[in-house]
Amino acid sequence: MTRMWNQGTDLFTMQQNIKSIIHKSMRINIRMVDVIELTYEDFELICNKIRCIKGAEEIERYGVSIITAWVVSYKYGKQDMVNDILGEIFRNLPQHQTKYVMESITTIFFDYQIDSFGYQIMRLEDLREIVARHAGWKN
């Protein structure tokens, strides 16, 4: 597996690369872990970029990258780290924006044919369940 990015790669470019992979390969009943392969270095880079996200607009803009990093975190045993990053991002959102963000993430799953496995995304816990399934940790 070769690296996709380097230190100078911005989150927008990372997101575009991920979207391209998803458009080519993602379908219902396919887990993201079977489609997206990131080296540990690429995983670290994307996590460092995600740590800088502030606000609902950026979550919506980079939602595909967030979901991807979260899924890949299970491969490297770093799911707690990503959970902490996302928890911090969500804690810093005004309450009225949380529902908006959840709706935008639900839209991402629909738009990119990322299977939600029948879950209705209402809270961060629902997302954790879906992500764990996409990572191959749950059936």
Describe this structure in words.
With 139 residues, the protein is an all-alpha fold. The protein contains seven helices and no strands. The protein has helices at 11-25, 40-50, 56-61, 63-75, 79-91, 95-111, 124-134. The radius of gyration is 14 Å and the shape is globular. The model has no long low-confidence stretch (mean pLDDT 91).
Structural class: mainly alpha
Strand proportion, as a percent range, falls in under 5%
- The termini sit apart by 26 Å
Low-confidence runs of at least 5 consecutive residues: none
How many separate helices? 7
Describe the sheet with the most strands.
none
Features:
single chain, 139 residues, mainly alpha, 7 helices
Summarize this, please?
With 139 residues, the chain is mostly helical. It has helices spanning 11-25, 40-50, 56-61, 63-75, 79-91, 95-111, 124-134.
Question: What is the topology?
Answer:
Layout: H1 11-25, H2 40-50, H3 56-61, H4 63-75, H5 79-91, H6 95-111, H7 124-134
Helix pairs in contact: 2-4, 4-5
